[in-house]
Specification:
Strand content: 15-25%
Mean pLDDT: 89
Shape: globular
Largest sheet: 6 strands, mixed
Low-confidence stretches: 1-14
Number of strands: 34
Number of helices: 34
Radius of gyration: 36 Å
Strand order of the largest sheet: 5-20-21-3-22-23
Length: 951
């Protein structure tokens, strides 16, 4: 009982703040309308609400920003001058705030050297394990490498060579070129009279040297002895000297001229090959000590190959067979090639497949024979120059050409697995250190589940000495692998680059790392951690978040997931609408109370409102797109059939191969067919049914622009029509204004003080840089003359300020403009303004801007749309909007293929293809396919289990 009491008091002691709750008073950031809010500390809190209602403004731009700012305030003014202060969010007061850690999705590294192993530190501990407990084997003979102390060498010589004549040698040069005059001089000065050069004993003479262009092996003769126990002291002194001169290595020459190798370091006793002492960086592909020298530790190399330069050998050179040169023109390079071909009795019009390979090699890689080309400038004279070769020229430009040239050369560059390390990233010495018959690279290729099994019970397979060294390291490794299993990432492997992970996966890796730090009294804020998670793994994620809470932390999650809301301790719903219609707390409380309240979210949670299952499923046009034998990554010869003219869903647990099948195989095939893309699809046998399609469009969640100059109006192209409309107005015609006058990116009409940005950046010493509205145009982006041209009383700047809803009414009699704006409204983006900076749009919003842009184009009814988790960041109500849009696309005869985990979308599909059953190696095949009703009956599929409940 006493113990329980103590625990209780202690848990109250967490709150050094003295507050039981977090109180927010007067939050007005972005669209928040003076929000006052109180919620309990040390709980799991979900903030939800429709897209654009202000969830992120509350969680990240208010709570997180204030927590960060307070942390920065604790630094000295001198330190702050280097980091800059953070701007105070627009809020009156926040009480009870702990130190804040935000785990967002956009923070993943694009660096190919960042992998799952390096970011979770598992790989770092494995490097330590291999450096201290790994066993070395020779890469030339496969023998176990041995180390010997001076005493061991001495005992070995006395017992194995008793009574024999031996020469003790110290190697000083091993397989290097040079004349070595100074070295011989130095050896003489040290008092030695003989050396062995390239296997031959020689007397040292003054000014002695060897051929500088040949490779040599040179050893110093330290001593010549007859082995006997009575000379033990002399032999031991000679061994000592030889090891000193040979830097830890010595050689013995016996009577039959056989060589025996000995070393204080790791050495192959047969060939004499020695390794440096292993250190953790020997196994790091990010360190010059461990990285493969050919690919610098990337595992891949970029090279220009014959296939990429000559893709179609049936063409002749004059018809553009050599891609970088194009078709024949009367220019110097073609004359040069003509002269080379003439020498080999071949013409420019000969198909390349009929030209001998040695001639093609000369064209691609050059040769040293000068070629004569007749001069145009000086008739009657010839230019005699060597031909450098097309691939050689391209490689030179790739190194030092202009950006434009380098971009052009990239078209002929292909990425291939490094031939030296076969993608293992490490130099060969590092790959020959083994623990239980595996090298470190093989472990990094295991998926996390297999790795866990391998480390399980490893002690039984290690020697006693290895166990003493490895005990602590193994504890750390297992702990970290355990965290990754807890958040459902068992299908990843340690070598997987971070840039290839989805936002949700990267976020869960950071979550696993945070659980590992075991901090208490912290406020964690997460942004939709359930993205990319199958319902099955949601349970693991919720448990991980609860573990974080139970340590004594407050966890805030911005989330739309039903299970997450019902499992949390407190739910806050922001709304009621989006943009300027949102920004208020419409409901809050523990889940049981929350369900009784009047809010859109509560209505969907307690099934008062729901997304309806269609009465009948579309059969499609009867035509099919068939992909046969897809076997990239973990796919096991998958045959995919997509019925055209339907809404088809690709489902399956995380890591089952959905992205590999669609993004890395199907999309590149379609892209090559319709747009001649250079990106190679992963392995497949054949594809049929392409003739029924005429274009493919992938709508992903990447930003629509990287700078504030991009906005929905410019992206959808409607701004071009609006500028054209303004230039047609009588006032504009009188003044002679063209459409360019109304662009904020072009000199003429824009405000030149801020160059059309509307904001100016003021650099402050000791304070953060501040963006202030431009004092000349007051943030309107244009100069006074441009703003005097008005349409229905509104200037071009006023139009950019309008929300999509307002603009739809304003331009109702301009069919060309309203068509594009209306589609933005229909995908649920009525709340964003036409000129909103692209950098402030969320991933889901960017994706819907792209969808709207595609919707507003005139389509042929033969388009193939690919969407990856379009429900990211969408509330139930927005999912309904999205489905209406997708159904409209399908009604016109197009095919929409969606990769999705959200059951509300899965249940309304016409056709489902479910991959799995597990992730990683346990997945990669089609478990079941057909209508949702048919799929739900499958016993093996995890998706079926949850889909059955929905239907």
């Amino acid at each position: 009982m006493i113990a329980e009491e103590e625990v209780k008091n202690d848990s109250e002691g967490y709150d050094i703040t003295g507050y039981e709750n977090i109180e927010i008073i007067g939050a007005r950031e972005h669209n928040l309308k003076n929000v006052n809010l109180t919620f309990p500390r040390n709980t799991l809190v979900t903030i939800t609400g429709i897209s654009g209602s202000g969830k992120s403004s509350l969680a990240f731009d208010t709570i997180y920003a204030e927590g960060q700012r307070r942390y920065m305030e604790s630094f000295s003014a001198y330190a702050r001058s280097f980091i800059g202060n953070l701007e105070r969010p627009d809020v009156d007061k926040i009480n009870g705030l702990s130190p804040v850690i935000s785990i967002e999705q956009k923070t993943t590294s694009r660096n190919p050297r960042s992998t799952v192993g390096t970011v979770t530190e598992i790989y770092d501990f494995m490097r330590l394990l291999y450096a201290r407990a790994g066993e070395a084997f020779s890469y030339s003979t496969g023998e176990r490498m041995v180390r010997q102390s001076e005493d061991q060498i001495l005992d070995h010589i006395l017992s194995n060579f008793d009574g024999q004549k031996l020469t003790i040698l110290a190697p000083v040069v091993k397989g290097r070129k040079g004349h070595y005059r100074e070295l011989f001089q130095q050896i003489r000065k040290n008092g030695y009279s003989k050396v062995r050069v390239d296997g031959e004993l020689q007397e040292l003479v003054p000014k002695m040297q060897v051929d500088r262009y040949k490779t040599h092996d040179i050893e110093v003769v330290i001593d010549r002895i007859v082995v006997a126990e009575k000379d033990r002291y002399r032999i031991s002194q000679s061994i000592k000297t030889a090891l000193k001169q040979g830097e830890g290595v010595l050689m013995l020459l016996d009577q039959e001229d056989n060589i025996h190798h000995f070393s204080k370091y790791l050495m192959d006793p047969v060939s004499g090959l020695s390794y440096d002492e292993p250190a953790p960086n020997t196994f790091s592909f990010n360190s010059p000590y461990g990285a493969c020298p050919k690919c610098n530790g990337l595992g891949e190399i970029e090279e220009i190959t014959e296939e990429s330069v000559i893709p179609d050998k049936s063409l002749s050179i004059s018809r553009g067979g050599i891609l970088p040169l194009g078709e024949y023109r009367d220019i110097w390079i073609f004359k040069k090639i003509q002269a080379i071909l003439k020498r080999h009795k071949v013409a420019l019009t000969t198909p390349i497949e009929k030209i001998p390979q040695e001639v093609i090699d000369v064209l691609l890689y050059g040769d040293s024979v000068p070629v004569a080309v007749k001069s145009v400038k000086y008739p009657g004279t010839d230019w005699n120059t060597k031909f450098e070769g097309i691939i050689k020229f391209l490689e030179k430009q790739k190194e030092g050409g202009s950006d434009k040239i380098q971009k052009w050369v990239n078209d002929f560059t292909v990425t291939t697995t490094c031939p030296e390390c076969n993608g293992a990233r490490l130099k060969k010495e590092a790959l020959h250190f083994l623990i239980d018959h595996h090298n470190i690279s093989q472990l990094a290729e295991f998926d996390i589940r297999t790795l866990w099994t391998w480390f399980d019970g490893l002690e039984l397979r290690l020697s006693d000495k290895q166990n003493v060294i490895a005990a602590e390291v193994l504890k750390e490794i297992r702990k970290r692998i355990g965290f990754l299993l807890d958040v459902g990432l068992d299908y990843l492997h340690l070598n997987r680059p971070l840039r290839t992970l989805s936002g949700g996966e990267a976020q869960r890796i950071r979550l696993a790392t945070q659980i590992g730090t075991q901090l208490v009294g912290v406020l964690y804020i997460l942004d939709e951690p359930s993205i990319g998670l199958h319902q099955r793994d949601n349970v693991k994620l919720i448990k991980a978040l609860k573990d974080l809470r139970d340590l004594g932390n407050t966890v805030i999650v911005v989330e739309h997931d039903k299970d997450m809301m019902l499992a949390s301790d407190y739910v806050i719903d922001i709304g009621p609408g989006a943009g300027r219609h949102g920004g208020q707390v419409v409901a809050q409380g523990p889940p049981q109370e929350f369900l009784k309240q009047k809010s859109a979210t509560a209505a969907y949670l307690n099934n008062q409102r729901q997304i309806e299952v269609p009465k009948e499923r579309r059969k499609g046009s009867g035509k099919k797109l068939k992909l046969t034998g897809a076997s990239g990554n973990n796919l096991k010869g998958v045959d995919l059939q997509v019925p055209l003219g339907t809404l088809t869903l690709i489902t399956g647990v995380s890591g089952s191969g959905k992205s590999t099948l669609i993004h890395d195989t199907l999309f590149p095939i379609l892209n090559q067919k319709f747009y001649n893309s250079r990106r190679e699809p992963l392995a497949y046998k054949k594809v049929t049914g392409l003739e029924h399609l005429d274009k493919v469009i992938e709508v992903d969640q990447s930003p629509i622009g990287r700078t504030p100059r991009s906005n929905p109006a410019t992206y959808t192209g409607v701004f071009t029509d609006i500028r054209a409309l303004f230039s047609e107005l009588p006032e504009a015609k009188i003044r002679g204004y063209k459409p360019g006058r109304f662009s904020f990116n072009v000199k003429g009409g824009r405000c030149e003080t801020c160059e059309g940005a509307g904001l100016r950046l003021i650099e402050m010493d000791f304070l953060p840089d501040v963006h202030v509205p431009c004092e000349t145009c007051k943030g309107k982006r244009y100069n006074r003359e441009t703003l005097e041209v008005r349409f229905k009383g509104k200037s071009i700047s006023d139009v950019l300020e309008m929300t999509v809803e307002e603009a739809t009414e304003f331009f109702e009699h301009q069919p060309k403009i309203v068509r594009k704006i209306k589609t933005l409204n229909e995908v649920g983006l009525g709340y964003i303004s036409l000129g909103q900076h692209a950098t402030t749009l969320s991933g889901g919003e960017a994706q819907r801007v792209k969808l709207a842009t595609e919707l507003s184009k005139k389509d042929t009814g033969k388009t193939f749309y690919i969407l990856d988790e379009p429900t990211t960041g969408l509330h139930f109500q927005d999912i309904q909007h999205l489905l209406d849009v997708l159904n409209r696309l399908v009604e016109k005869g197009n095919t929409v293929l969606v990769i999705e985990h959200n059951l509300d979308v899965i249940k309304v599909a016409d056709h489902i293809v479910d991959l799995g059953p597990e992730g990683g190696n346990g997945g990669g095949r089609i478990v079941t396919s057909g209508t949702p009703e048919k799929v739900a009956e499958n016993e093996e599929s995890f998706t079926a289990k949850y889909l059955k409940l929905e239907l």
